[in-house]
């Protein structure tokens, strides 16, 4: 009986994943191959053309989403790593306070935070309206409904998901290892490059995954902060599902996005070296 105890304990989790992850994915895969409409109903015809038609029609939005997600992820890494490093090694007894401040925005709804950014970046808003009134900015200056606004919103909303995994990885670095590097006449830069950075790669790997995937598929920031030229694939999927009731196309786009992200993650893992990452995480 003891031998089966771990399996019984894991059973609720596996059932949850099966019901709320596997079943919806299988159902969506089936819908993506159907044809028809909402009035006459949808029939399973195994129509692969749903994928080719959807990709051909919305390839621009798909590429734009990957670019926005990639740029936002790089910016988050450049901003997040120093913050995580500072909290892990310099914050001292105030680490908990800084982590709380980092998580504080999550006490407010994701949508409300994005709308607040919309008010802040508005042409006549608190920031730019005031600067224009002082004559520091031209009247035709605007940020809202631009690529900069959308990427800025993605960075703001998902930055904590980059910082936290990196912080956890850095927190596990034994200070004695860094001191040993200094004892071997390594400079601060060499100690960081040869000791700290390799040991923090598990956090970097997790942080990139936790930010790139949701940022690429996010429909909120583009809808609130972007314009007609900033539509992302998440907006298209949302419109096809909820407005046009074109479920096969929406499902095909969802699977296409999922496949592209999985391929990208696999390439990223191979390039980073998952074996080295796992070895560093196990230390």
From TrEMBL:
Residues 62-268 form the ABC transmembrane type-1 domain. One of its GO terms (cellular component) is plasma membrane. It comes from Acrocarpospora phusangensis. Keywords: Cell membrane, Membrane, Transmembrane, Transmembrane helix, Transport. It is a multi-pass membrane protein. The keyword Transport applies. One of its GO terms (biological process) is transmembrane transport. Belongs to the binding-protein-dependent transport system permease family. CysTW subfamily. Its main location: membrane. Pfam families: BPD_transp_1. It is found in: Cell membrane. The keyword Transmembrane helix applies. This is ABC transporter permease. The chain crosses the membrane at residues 7-29, 66-87, 99-121, 141-170, 191-213, 250-269.
């Amino acid at each position: 009986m003891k031998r089966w105890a771990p399996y019984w304990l894991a059973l609720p989790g596996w059932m949850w994943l099966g019901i709320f992850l596997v079943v919806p994915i299988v159902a969506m895969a089936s819908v993506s191959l159907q044809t028809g409409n909402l009035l006459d109903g949808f029939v399973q015809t195994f129509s692969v053309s749903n994928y080719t038609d959807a990709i051909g029609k919305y390839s621009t939005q798909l590429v734009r989403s990957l670019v926005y997600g990639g740029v936002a992820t790089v910016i988050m890494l450049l901003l997040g790593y120093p913050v995580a490093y500072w909290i892990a090694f310099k914050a001292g007894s105030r680490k908990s306070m800084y982590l709380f401040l980092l998580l504080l925005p999550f006490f407010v709804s994701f949508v409300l935070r994005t709308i607040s950014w919309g008010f802040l970046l508005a042409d006549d808003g608190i920031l730019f309206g005031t600067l224009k009134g002082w004559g520091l900015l031209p009247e035709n200056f605007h940020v809202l409904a631009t690529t900069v606004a959308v990427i800025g919103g993605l960075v703001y909303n998902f930055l904590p998901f980059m910082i936290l995994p990196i912080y956890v990885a850095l927190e596990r670095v034994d200070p004695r290892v860094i001191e040993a590097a200094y004892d071997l006449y390594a400079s601060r830069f060499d100690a960081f490059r040869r000791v700290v950075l390799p040991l923090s790669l598990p956090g970097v790997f997790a942080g990139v995954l936790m930010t790139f995937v949701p940022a690429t598929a996010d429909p909120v920031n583009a809808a609130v902060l972007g314009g007609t030229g900033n539509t992302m694939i998440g907006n298209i999927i949302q419109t096809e599902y909820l407005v046009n009731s074109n479920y096969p196309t929406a499902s095909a786009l969802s699977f296409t996005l999922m496949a592209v992200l999985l391929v990208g993650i696999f390439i990223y893992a191979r390039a980073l070296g998952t074996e080295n990452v796992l070895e560093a995480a196990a230390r």
